[in-house]
Amino acid sequence: MDIVLEMQGVCKTFYGDGVIVKANDQVNFNLKKGEIHALLGENGAGKSTLVGTLFRKPDSGIIRLNGKEVELNDPITALNYGLGIARQDLTKSLIERHTIAENILSISKGFFLSLTEIENEIIKVLNMYDLGELDPKVRIWKLSGGEKQRVEILKALISDPDILILDEPTSMLTPTEIDNLFKLLNKLKARGKSIILISHHLEEAVNYSDRITILRQGKVVDTIDTHKAKENWKSEEEGIRAIANLMVGRESLYDLYREPLKPVNVAIEIKGINAKNEMGDEVVRGVGLKLMDNQIVGLAGISGNGQAELVEAMLNLRKADSGEVWIRGMNITNKSIRAIKNLGVAYVPEVRRKALILDLSVRENLLLNSYQYSPTPMIENDNNALITEELIDRFNIKTPSPLVPVRTLSGGNRQKVVVAREFSVIPPDGAGLILIVENPTFGLDVGTTQFVREELLKMRAAGAAILLVSSDLTEILTLSDVISVMYKGRIMGTVDSEDATRENIGLLMGGVELEEVFS
Amino acid sequence: MAEIINPVLGQSIVAAATFFLIPTLGEIYTERSGILNLGIEGMIIASAAGSYAITFLTQNLWVGIIFGIFLGGILATIHAVITITFNRNQIVSGIGLTIFGTGLSGFLGRDVIGKAVNGLDKIELPILYDLPVIGPIFFNHTILVYLSYILVPVLWFILYKTRVGILIRTVGENPSAAFNQGVNVRLIRYLCTIFGGMCAGLGGAYLSLSWLNFWSEGMTNGKGWIVIALVVVSLWNPLGALFGSYLFGSFDVLQFSFQQIGIDTSILKMMPYLSTMTFLALWAIILSQQKVKSIVGAPTALATPFED
Ligand SMILES: Nc1ncnc2c1ncn2[C@@H]1O[C@H](COP(=O)(O)OP(=O)(O)OP(=O)(O)O)[C@@H](O)[C@H]1O
Ligand SMILES: [Mg+2]
User: Which of A349, A409, B95, B250 has the most crowded CB, counting CB atoms within 10 A?
Assistant: First the structure.
């Protein structure tokens, strides 16, 4: 097969604050015509940086397209050479206030802007590739995470690139959407297009890729032929473990064990919550939930069914139109978020941006919760340094120094900062922690995902009451004691983990009534 | 009410409003591309002096006006180099520009204080002038006023209905996104900033050669700053600029009518500035609503440097 893209000895170093990060160190990578090439590695391994060098030239190294050496100095050159990319960091890629059509500039030509033309083109491409419904006239801020991700993929596809790069395209998609995406990629492959796929869902690489390249700390560990390797792997599971070991450099995946506990104390109870979304639609309808100490309640559901709004209404980050929230027998409806947090509530929101101040340092972000407990008006730097060092170490946050801005961290490591801070909240008077986490492992590599899940189980054993909002069914099923399924703003049913299976929870998530599922 | 329909008063409102309108239109473009230029006041006053002096020297009005536009453009280029090429703080640079422009105006105008120059003549537009009520108010002005009538729809059209327009708005909302799609962010920001400077320069020329037709030091009375507020009031939209400028033009003129009913002049002189503050406060309350914010409001990347 022909090699369409060849990268040789690519280096990219970031400098800042007296630290040097070699994000790519002598990377060799090639892409064949008509293949899906998975690019895997831990958070911060340098995957996004590597594909980024195709749009902004690397410090050193050679890039060849179809055997010819090229200089890809800026995105426009790369686009003209037939490269298309769906980026990981959508905040740098989509314009919230503009409509979908206005976001897709690459196909507008001439002096006048014909939005209808672009809109028609969008609909054509959506239908052609079976990318699902999207109204080109809708503004980005109204879209759910998954929809935004589809817009980003659409944006890459619409210029019909020969080389398509997808940087974590599936992190927010539903299982059906993921299936559709891979059908689409196979179609493109058949048409002779080449695809680079970055993902932390290793099963996607095992099932759909032709080759896999693994990066570790900026260097290539290995490139393997997936089809050949599959002959040696007995199962998908074994393949995933083998790849994970290469990524991390040691044995990293093992089964989690959830010890049986008997929860007795009610930590938080919500009754009949109704809430609206930004557009004024009622998206939470009469939701009640009960959460006990020593318990993980999984709130399952395809994202965008009101889970995020429910949690915000619980914490008074969003106005609840009706309903009550009780924490340890105290009515906290409409109390300030500070008052609520002081009761020992920690919160990991789905949108990382809401939990981080990107321009502040890793240390400052890790300490956001604790400043107010400082006994003196001064910031105690020695103590803080100690606390942050410990968190960085424990949560394995890959940062060159605690003093660099969070902005410079890789996507997954930003997430780790939030998780580290919220997981280390200490509730007052020895009460159990109430932890509300939304998709806590979103964007994390397999090893860290494993670690976070383990931490959640440890905290449960130590007495925490945990509400786990997740659209990842595996996560829900492995961690939860009780599973509530949300669909279109309603709780479809609450199922004990012993009775829960992938199938029946999946049906509830799709809107089938509880009686029908268990009849 | 009869007062407002009074053609002389109406005419003076239009004349005053035009002074606000032209620089506001330019600054809207500058800010839409993500650059805040607080140097408006400086560019207006320097150009007012410069165009008046050049006209006096050459006895050619058009040379003077073009010099004013050119000077505004040059001053804005300084701001552009500092903030776009060197990514320095836009607020500091803008204020510096105002101080510099004010100083420059004293220098350029030092020999023409109190000297007379024949300013632009008023032209009665045929047919339109004969329209009842609005005819004499809107269609008996200098050519620069007519130009402002044309600029509003044209600039609106460019911003919302052309490719250039969407590129400008994209750059002001999210420069990284624009850059990733192959847009030359710096070039667009340069062009918009320079265009804003040229409009401010034209506003200055209008002040000294068309509206008031004299030059005296400090003659803007800080009104250039009102333009910054007007951009907010107009919601960064050229059509809004029309509304805002005429509103503030009315405040500016009506203060003199209030004088006749015995309100102290020193209070009346505060009117334009007081109304600016009132409006900004009002707008701030409205614009801070989450729902409103996601539709209109300051360009998201306003005053943030772009580092690719
Ligand atoms: N603009 C930047 N300034 C400084 N350091 C950076 C910058 N961008 C990336 N880095 C560093 O380069 C390394 C590689 O980052 P990169 O984003 O490529 O990781 P990744 O493999 O895509 O990880 P993830 O799976 O978390 O997205 C990280 O250590 C990160 O901190
Ligand atoms: Mg990445």
Answer: A409
